[in-house]
Amino acid sequence: MCRSLQRGRFHAAAAVLGRKTGAEHRWLERHLKDPFVKATKQQNYRCRSAFKLLEMDDKLRILRPGLSVLDCGAAPGAWSQVAVERVNALGADPTVPTGFVLGIDLQHISPLAGAVFLSEADVADPATLRTILSLLPAGKVDVILSDMAPNPTGIRELDHQKLIKLCLGLLDLSQSVLKPKGTLLCKFWDGQDSRLLQGRLKEQFQDVRTVKPQASRKDSAESYYLARLYKGK
After folding, report:
1. Strand order in the sheet with 141-146
2. Does 216 fall in a domain?
């Protein structure tokens, strides 16, 4: 789920209660000055995180027309918006292949033209996996995207471990839904278990690199692992 969506709910609650902490005031001031927040409104993306994927895709060509994409932790749908555009899921350009985008999240996701959404669904649930497989046109996808994050506890190391566990779960998911030579892009927070995740990725993908988009805030511990050329069957 998008961080700004979580923050937005917190701000709304704080406003109702008529009190904000100093940290909240500082976050709100930074948020209002953020050029990516302004661009989000101007370009009608659902969340500023869209610019992280746009930047990474511009540099690394993760998405191409005709590819099928599974967007994990999709709410509110900004990464799916980018994916729909980049894989030509709406068939807007008849000169290139038409792709497919399936998004999934524990939260509700508002409908988006060109994407299929599974709202209030747990990607780790076997029943959800069966539904995913039934919805994929070719049975598997070319790309798995994940901007997933656990609900923060405020304990940095615990939150880090929980996110790494989510990413490791994506590796298990890959065995069922990712095509050979496919791509996995997943967010992680830096910490002692990052190398564990990196090592597991290198076992299953031929090319693994760390990416830190400029759209990620400088004080954020988040980075992304881009794993390419899946070795699975």
Report:
1. 115-118, 100-104, 68-72, 141-146, 178-189, 222-230, 205-211
2. yes
pLDDT tens for the 233 residues of the chain, in order: 665 444 443 344 344 344 556 655 543 454 445 555 655 566 789 899 999 999 999 999 999 999 999 999 999 999 999 999 999 999 999 999 999 999 999 999 999 999 999 999 999 999 999 999 999 998 999 999 999 999 889 899 999 999 999 999 999 999 999 999 999 999 999 999 999 999 999 999 999 999 999 988 777 889 999 999 999 86
Catalytic residue among 41, 52, 187, 233: 187
> What's the predicted TM-score (pTM) here?
0.85
Report the CATH number at residue 202: 3.40.50.150
Instruction: Report which residue type is found at 88.
Output: N
Cα 227 to the center of its chain, rounded Å: 14
140 is annotated as an active-site residue = no
Determine the structural domain holding residue 78 and report its residue range: 46-230
